[in-house]
Amino acid sequence: MKIAVTATGGALTAQMDSRFGRCAYFVIYDTETKKFNAFTNPAAAFAGGAGPAAARELAKYSVEVLLTGHVGLNAEQALAAANIKVVTGYSGTVQEALDAYGKEHAA
């Protein structure tokens, strides 16, 4: 499963970014390979439509779960259309959020 986390930087040690559409980075963690990929959010500087554009970007990477703070209505609809589950309520570093999510959703 691929989990995306909104972040202030491109590393597992970066702090989570509470914004979705205008976050600085996305860190995508693959639970099967235990590897991560980080990239700058191309929608961060958009004048409008940042949320849906960011959702389309995550869909390109086959993300299944998004850990973030606030998601606007248009972004929420775009994420739902891409079958990306939105999970809020985490804070700290990207690694801390991933660890917390993993503990809560362990099979």
3D architecture notes:
- The protein is α/β, with parallel strands linked by helices and 107 residues long.
- It is built from 3 helices and 5 strands.
- The protein has a 5-stranded mixed beta sheet, sandwiched between helices.
- The longest helix is centred in the middle third of the chain and has 11 residues, at 50-60.
- The radius of gyration is 12 Å and the shape is globular.
Shape: globular
Structural class by secondary-structure content: alpha/beta
In N-to-C order, the SSE pattern is EEEHEHEH
CATH class assignment of the domain at 1-71: Alpha Beta
What would CATH call the homologous superfamily of the domain at 1-71? Answer: Dinitrogenase iron-molybdenum cofactor biosynthesis domain
End-to-end Cα distance: 13 Å
Average per-residue pLDDT, rounded, comes to 95
Going by CATH, the architecture of the domain at 1-71 would be 2-Layer Sandwich
Helix content: 25-40%
Proportion in β-strands: 15-25%
Q: If you consult CATH, what is the topology of the domain at 1-71? A: Nucleotidyltransferase, domain 5
User: Stretches where pLDDT falls below 50 for ≥5 residues?
Assistant: none
CA-based gyration radius = 12 Å
